[in-house]
Amino acid sequence: MKLQSINSTINGKKPDVAPPPSAVPTDAPALNPKKMPQHIAIIMDGNRRWAKRKGWMTIRGHSVGARTTRNIIQECVDLKIHALTLYTFSTENWKRPQSEVTALLRLITRNLNQELPEMKANNIQVRHIGRREGLPDYLLSQLDRCIGETSHNNGMVLALALNYGGRAEIADAFHQLLQQVQAGTLQAEDVTEAHITAALYTGDLPEPDLMIRTGGEFRISNFLPWQMAYTELWVTPTLWPDFTPVELRSAIADFQGRERRFGGVNE
Fold first, then answer.
1. Is residue 178 part of a domain?
2. CATH number at residue 218
3. Model confidence over 222-247: pLDDT tens digits?
4. So which residues are the catalytic ones?
5. In a domain, 180, yes or no
6. Contact assessment for residue 36 and residue 79, using Cβ atoms and an 8 Å cutoff
7. DSSP H or E segment with residue 164
8. In a domain? residue 133
9. Residue 104 structural domain
10. Does residue 94 lie in a domain region?
11. Residue of 98, 162, 172 lying closest to 135 (CA atoms)
12. How far apart are the first and last CA of the chain?
């Protein structure tokens, strides 16, 4: 089942982009199903630049980018990816103009509402990673609804990094461990990397095998810094609204061609 195309309009106009393809084009690279990444993390960068280049309002770039998100989620479902984490709104994004922040948070809320039936049909389990504090009640209410209504699904885990910052996540993990030490259930000298990993927002998920960043910037921007110690990075200059399932497959094909040694030696 394909995720529905965008229904919303901006300034009375529908984004003038072609409808999503009904199937992956035949020129898409072939993938080895035995070497698929379990967990893909994506920094969805470039919505603002995409809109600016076309002389449009910023929110229109986010709106068109939302369809890219739908298509990529669907492709990951079709490829049987175990987990997909999307950098949706960072703790640093609050620094943007208030009008843009408000419009973006309302767009996220509307998209969660519109896409919930498809996510349920695709057996997706929705999760939130990030801090709840500061997010508006209307967004939290819709987010909780999506999490609750998909909690029993056992297909792909879709983790939305919303009001997320990697350093904040690590700080929250340490606070949690400190409480255990103070309660006497954990000794400070017994704390290991495994304890820290388990205390993170993504504690029960495998670490990302592949991180994709669109928009051409070569940095992780405070995104999953602990988890991505050995993640394979793939950067494309393509802006997020133009990113396609074919390019996703190209990233995975490149990943499958790499030799992962994790600090060791492969004989």
1. no
2. 3.40.1180.10
3. 999 999 999 999 999 999 999 999 99
4. 45, 93
5. no
6. yes
7. strand 157-164
8. yes
9. 36-165+207-256
10. yes
11. 162
12. 43
